[in-house]
Structure formats: structure tokens, C-alpha cells
Design a protein that fits this description.
Layout: H1 8-25, H2 28-32, H3 39-45, H4 56-66, H5 70-79, H6 92-117, H7 124-154
Amino acid sequence: MNGRPYTRADYLAIKSATRRSCEDAGPLHEIAANTRADTAALSRYGNAERPEFIPIDVAMDLDALSGGDRILRAWAEMRGYDLVREEKGIAVEDARHHVSAVLKETGEAIIAMGDVVGPKAPTPLAAARAERELDDVIDAAERARADMRRIRAVS
């Protein structure tokens, strides 16, 4: 019997948040240069087939490097908390990064959706990839929307 307090889906949500934070932060070798984890460990932390999970200090580094709070948000959501960031203003660099992420993620989602509705018969694998890409668009858009709200609030 498994006495762990969370479901497999909960643990996979942390794996997914880790993987997506790595994608946001850049190449694994650049992330590794700014945290104590090497590229192989970072890859394992986001791999659903591997038992290793990201240590808290590396998660903190990764969330900071990615410009978001994916891992923190996944854990908070799992625990039933809503995170509310207290910000008086916004760094222009953050807004630029978030807007660029929306554009990048939208392009990737369009390509993935094209694979689903293209000339070949749609496959569950292609649909799952498109769904993941759309989730990335939504996440990026939410960060950009929050930036716009903070900018409006300062004015």
C-alpha cells in the first residue's frame, strides 16, 4: 500500500510544471549553469517516467530563471492555495519576456494543431501534443495579462 499523501496525478503535475519551467527558462545547459543541478538531473526532474523530483532549492532557482512560478503554483494548487503576487509595478524585461513567450507558444500551438487537422488522419498522440501546446499558450497569456493589469494599475 502506498502511504503517500498525494495521487499519481498530483506528482505528475509537479513533473509537468518542472518540464514546462525548463522549457521557459531555456536550454538545460544554461539552466544548469545557474543552479546546482546538472543537465541530466534537470531532464530527469521533468520526466514522468523517472522517480526523481526536483529539490526545493532547484525549484526556486528554476521558477526564477523561467520568469514564472509554475512549480510554486502547481504545488500551491495541489495544497488548495491561491497565489496572489503582491507587486507595485512591473519590470519591462518581464513584460517583454512574457509577450515573447505568448508569441512563441502560439506559433508552436499552431504547428501542433496543424498536425492534427492536416492531410493525415489525426492521432491521439498529435492531439495530446496540441493540447499541451495550447496549455502553454494559456499559461503564457495569463502571465502577459497579469503584466498588462499591473501596468494599468500603476498608471
